[in-house]
Amino acid sequence: MSIFSSCKFVPHAILLQPKASLKTPNQSLATVHCTKVVRNVNLEKLRHNYLFPEIEARALEHMKKYPDANIIRLGIGDTTEPIPDIITSNMAEYAKALSTRKGYKGYGAEQGHKALRKAIAESFYKDLGVKDAEVFVSDGSQCDISRLQLLLGSSVSVAVQDPNFPAYMDSSVIIGQAGDFLDETLKYKNIEYMTCGPHNNFFPDLSTTSRTDIIFFCSPNNPTGHAASHEQLTQLVEFARKNGSIIVYDSAYSVYITDGSPKSIYEIPGSRECAIEISSFSKIAGFTGVRLGWTVVPDELYYANKVPVIHDFDRIVCTCFNGASSIAQAGGLACLSPEGFKAVMSVVDYYKENAKILVETFTSLGLVVYGGVNAPYVWVHFPGSRSWDMFSHILNKTHIITVPGSGFGPGGEGYIRVTAFGQRENILEASVRLKNVYL
Amino acid sequence: MSIFSSCKFVPHAILLQPKASLKTPNQSLATVHCTKVVRNVNLEKLRHNYLFPEIEARALEHMKKYPDANIIRLGIGDTTEPIPDIITSNMAEYAKALSTRKGYKGYGAEQGHKALRKAIAESFYKDLGVKDAEVFVSDGSQCDISRLQLLLGSSVSVAVQDPNFPAYMDSSVIIGQAGDFLDETLKYKNIEYMTCGPHNNFFPDLSTTSRTDIIFFCSPNNPTGHAASHEQLTQLVEFARKNGSIIVYDSAYSVYITDGSPKSIYEIPGSRECAIEISSFSKIAGFTGVRLGWTVVPDELYYANKVPVIHDFDRIVCTCFNGASSIAQAGGLACLSPEGFKAVMSVVDYYKENAKILVETFTSLGLVVYGGVNAPYVWVHFPGSRSWDMFSHILNKTHIITVPGSGFGPGGEGYIRVTAFGQRENILEASVRLKNVYL
């Protein structure tokens, strides 16, 4: 076989390339070399683009159509407000010190700086028994979800809330847990979907939920904005313990809770033996671009064969990750000083005020609205409508980008998610536009 | 079944915990709850701790034994010299600007800032046809190796150089490509080991190498320090094309090349259809703690079914990663300005001078030494000795930490790796100690 063996086809991407990028001017498009590597069957199973890039693509299309439109982005939950100076100063100082003999540091511990692990344990888990060594600093919870999937492997069974943040399910598909996508149900065959809506107070009916190894659970929820109550989480922990399941609890929005709902799964007795918690500085401190988060794996969490889960997670972190950026970690530490925390919480309050304005706006249009009280997301119901239709309708009528609820799973059909992350003037302008068009 | 069902055992980790950490004072150790989640069989197959934490554990043990010893760390390849001010200033300014309305930015593109992708393409791949959009910015090549494994999945076959950087193999085991570890050979059953040593000028005998889907290839090599020649890499590319394989080429040490060997696999004709390149700012600019790297996936690289690999890698990056820290990216951009690059290359020259001193030292002891010319690693041969024995012997006699060659695979047995990353005074002191003990 010649080393210039070729596959007989004219791939679309090649056709779109400028000719200069082809190896030789005379090379025929039909003789392009392709490898014999079989595409990962799990990636074949992913149904569509990851949600947010898909929305971005549609936004770009809209901008081409309306080049003069002033678009307001209430789609991806992306922080907009400057980070308090006390935090960026600490990062800047840390960065500058890297130019000095005394301040230079190379590799840090893969699990994170000791001082930061301790500060996280003390700030978010006071009196909950979380030890510093159980806290693993990450570059964000989305990244740690994939590392958890590497930990768990393809053989575990998985449950997700429906609707849910797409990273849980997409990473399940990529690692090979999900099975085939079924067009009839719009669900992956091997994933247990726990429907959460107004009919069940956004908490799954556990009496009809099948046992799975892993239960992804996000509270306050993205996208519905619902914070599970102490009673609901107690049921969840009992369910997980009875079934020998592991809960992967995502508390990325816990600082937005205002009604006394639990901010951590470890507030629930018995959870240390059945729950991992992932969280993030992204929405606490505007670190979406800085990249910093953490995962807690309690010592008492064991596999069926009695090996502690923390042992394997430590191995994954050491092998597949090399620690979060040391500068970002310096920023995280500054966030958790008393002054730093006060400063970031004032930004959180600003977004909460935005959420109130959005709730009031959509309510005034006669719509039923959920979320927005314990979370920076407002979940608006359009009974009888399709989410992508409403997404397009709102975009076309008001130049406001939202997120179609169906992007979070079939349980999100008929809803749109609106983010409260935004500059106040834009939130107010969005409110005016919506009222003008729909009131 | 009770929700307080328990497994009947007294796990070691629990016994070591202070009593206060147990749920209730009267809780019996024999009634600890464990889940029914089966441990990932791939993690069962990992043979030992990840190499560097293992060395660190032995170093700590040594420090307990000799609390007054002045230990010199020539083990893990960790940069020691301050980062030039022009780069840290840029990071500090970027960080400070995050406190301003104008300078604040949230999520960046998952694939990296456009300007940085462009600068990487222009700085490292000038005239090699690499497009900006083929460059994916990462938080380091070790992290991207794991993301590549998520891309490839468990069904591909893999070849590694022997000896090799442990992240390739360990990540292969974790994703499920490696099969069982065989005690007789000290090799994983399903991995093709391509022995590289002085007998074959550190380049595998491809006539006896089995075809695999993936070939991990590191040049300049970690740990041997060998930079593959143009002729060797031409053979490798021809071999990959003939077999329809994908080369994952690790060029993390390319700036250390002094003898004109290729700095990128894309210098070899035909490589764009068969090679991915991973690289890193860690050893270019002392970014081991800052965390920044990149991966190039050419448009012309296709799976057997004609899907472009870049399509799936983009999906992995968007789903399993959220971009490198924006502050680190600002630092990377500063590295690639003319002044920045000149400044970081002067630090590279400093480490190269260290390497010369180490080569001279071990040579003067009558040992045969490889590497150190095109790489910051010196690969010292101790014929007839075991690597871990030499590691311990050197540590005990001189308080110098090295890396046992066998930690990089069976082909590294009889060698130790010594890093040239270090402060000059420590390198000189190490030289004196080694000569005093062994001359």
Write the layout of secondary structure elements.
Two copies of one chain form a homodimer.
Chain A: H1 12-16, H2 41-45, H3 51-65, E1 72-73, H4 85-97, H5 114-124, E2 135-138, H6 141-152, E3 158-162, H7 166-175, E4 181-182, E5 187-188, E6 191-195, E7 214-218, H8 230-243, E8 246-250, E9 275-280, H9 282-285, E10 293-296, H10 309-320, H11 326-335, H12 338-364, E11 368-371, E12 377-381, H13 387-398, E13 400-401, E14 403-404, E15 415-419, H14 424-438
Parallel strand pairs in A: 1-13, 3-6, 3-7, 7-8, 8-9
Antiparallel strand pairs in A: 2-10, 4-5, 9-10, 11-12, 12-15, 14-15
Helix pairs in contact in A: 4-11, 5-11, 6-7, 6-10, 12-14
Overall description:
Two copies of one chain form a homodimer. Chain A has about 450 residues and is of the alpha/beta class. Chain A folds into three domains: about 35 residues, no CATH class; about 130 residues, Aspartate Aminotransferase, domain 1 (Alpha-Beta Complex); about 260 residues, Aspartate Aminotransferase, domain 2 (3-Layer(aba) Sandwich). Helix content of chain A is about 40%, strand content about 15%. In chain A, strands 2-10-9-8-7-3-6 form a seven-stranded mixed sheet, with helices on both faces. Chain A has a four-stranded antiparallel sheet with strand order 11-12-15-14. In chain A, strand 7, helix 8 and strand 8 form a beta-alpha-beta unit. The longest helix of chain A has 27 residues. Chain A starts with 11 loop residues before the first helix and ends with a helix. In chain A, about 55% of the residues are buried. The N terminus of chain A is likely disordered. Chains A and B meet through helix 2, helix 4, helix 6, helix 7 and helix 8 of A and helix 2, helix 4, helix 6, helix 7 and helix 8 of B. Chains A, B: Belongs to the class-I pyridoxal-phosphate-dependent aminotransferase family. LL-diaminopimelate aminotransferase subfamily. Chains A, B: It comes from Lactuca sativa (Garden lettuce). Chains A, B: Keywords: Aminotransferase, Pyridoxal phosphate, Transferase. Chains A, B: One of its GO terms (molecular function) is pyridoxal phosphate binding. Chains A, B: InterPro entries: Aminotransferase_I/II_large, DapL/ALD1, PyrdxlP-dep_Trfase, PyrdxlP-dep_Trfase_major, PyrdxlP-dep_Trfase_small.
